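User: Batch of two.

Assistant: Item 1 of 2:
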Amino acid sequence: MDEIFGVPIQAFMGQLMLGLVNGSFYALLSLGLAVIFGMLNIVNFAHGALYMVGAFFAWMLLNYAGINYWMALLLVPLAVGLIGVLIEKFLLQWLQGLDHLYGLLLTFGLALMLEGLFREAYGSSGLPYELPQVFRGAFDLGFMFLPKYRAWVIVAAVLTCLITWYVIEKTKLGAYLRAGTENPNLVKAFGINVPLMVTLTYAFGVGLAGLAGVMAAPIYQVSPLMGSNIIIIVFAVVVIGGMGSILGSIVTGLALGLIEGLSKVFYAEISTTVVFIIMAIVLMVRPAGLFGREK
């Protein structure tokens, strides 16, 4: 069979794989947003900028310090998480108890500042990041060639998402996190340091953005604009899946990436807006999102 629905199989599977790669980044980024909103009730508009910072940190480590991709996968999320600690301790903690709009405006301002700083330092054109040696080349699947690095991105992103979901939903640590959000005074009575837990949760959420940035660097050009180009789609993913829903962010991110990829095969003109069309339909039918809880 050389065609699927009248489309050459190579083109069909190529766009399907591209959609799955994009969906892996959507899932990973929206997961971080969902963790932060679900646990802390903060709409973190700086998430895209911190994703961009993660990609730039990986590029700097390689070009200025000779630190390779594998070490960057460990160091960059920690560095971005540390930035998250500073943001939460010195800025966001003063907004506790206030309307979500204040946190959104603050993080939106931070995003503009970070983007402006990197644009001033490196310009708007993208910078290449060298592909790790082990991932050069492609797997021959018979009907298409699958680049090794893209296969790695899909597997690593899905595993990270599933592990995060399991920790938050199925372990005692996750139960403490959820309880600390709903009833912090009760959790404090058990001797748990709730402010520290809040800070570490925010750091973990933005650390996921940093991890996504490292993984994106060899695929996309490392650019100050890469965060602002993706964050609107990621917010749409979170809204469709349900604000604060961990599972919703994972499933919706992967699914929308596939839908976006397939739309380029069958009707390319709609590929840039299909996510927002789906969001509008979902909000009309189920305002809380597909996996969200109706209040």
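Item 2 of 2:
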Amino acid sequence: METGNSTPSKASLCIGWIISGLCILFFLFDSITKIIKEEHSVKGSVQLGWPEHAIQGIGIALLISTILYLIPRTSILGAILLTGYLGGAIAIMIRAEQQLYFASVFGLLVWLGLYLRIPELHKILPIRKQD
């Protein structure tokens, strides 16, 4: 990964969009199932301690964050909002004594997808080789 380029390589851009696309598909699915109050989504959320009346609002927040992440001009804002959402998911999973790896991995993938697509992030989040 070059830090001096103003445009990512084709491979980096392609891999970044694939990673981001997989995250987007998952978040769209998750948000829509919450918004339409799909039975399994509601049951899982309630088991984790969420009141049923709050589930649609959570889905709407996730949908807005995902749409912002999808749009190139607002993708960094979307990633920040998704990071907050996933941080909340991690907190809930810890409180419920469940595995938190899923939300953690998605948090990393959200930023990895952007990192591969947006070279300006290399200056803010440098990954350096050890000498």
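The mean pLDDT is 91.
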